[in-house]
Automatic annotation (TrEMBL):
Residue ranges of domain Large ribosomal subunit protein uL6 alpha-beta in the record: 92-170
GO terms for cellular component: ribonucleoprotein complex; ribosome
Keywords, sorted A to Z: Mitochondrion, Ribonucleoprotein, Ribosomal protein
The family this protein is said to belong to: Belongs to the universal ribosomal protein uL6 family.
Species per Swiss-Prot/TrEMBL record: Nannochloropsis limnetica
UniProt-listed Pfam families: Ribosomal_L6
Gene3D superfamilies (alphabetical): Ribosomal protein L6, alpha-beta domain
Superkingdom field: Eukaryota
Protein name: 50S ribosomal protein L6
Residue ranges the record marks as coiled coil: none
Any one Gene Ontology BP term: translation
InterPro entries cross-referenced by the UniProt entry: Ribosomal_uL6-like (IPR000702), Ribosomal_uL6-like_a/b-dom_sf (IPR036789), Ribosomal_uL6_a/b-dom (IPR020040), Ribosomal_uL6_bac-type (IPR019906)
Amino acid sequence: MFISKNQYLRQSKDLKLNLLCQQKLLSVEGPQGSITYPLYAEFEYSKIERKLYITQTFNDERKKAFFQMYQILLTQSALGVLLGYRRQLNIVGIGYQVSIEEKETSNFLIFRLGFSHQVNVEVPNYVSVSCPKPRVLLLKGINLQKLHNFAGVLRRLKLPSAYKEKGIYYLGETVSLKQGKKT
């Protein structure tokens, strides 16, 4: 049987932790926003140190792996509400462009990717989008998993080609090109 008490979140002037014990929820608030997580582990709060210790007793490897994943998610949420996360997508190809269309209820991304039609994608409310250039798209959010998931959805609209340098790339991503047909 293992008892882990080495992980903690320190409450600061920018990071506020709210424990809702009856609903079994933990709310993490910061300058960028707030995230609420269900409680799957036991917590101890030290008022003197202003630390929230995450404790868990387990005797199974699967429970240990789940607990470690839960610790990572809480750490990522604390970083997200303090600093925020960003992801940049570069659109490479002749005639490929993206623009933002703002409507009353939500925003839409309009992609021109060489198809016979434009591709419209609704932007979810947990992601903020900016388009500094017609071929550069900046995504910002406080939840890392949701941000990367939405970036993956956009990237699947036009995956990077292995034969030509065309498609939607992450910032810094390199794709090794295959050799074309030899004659």
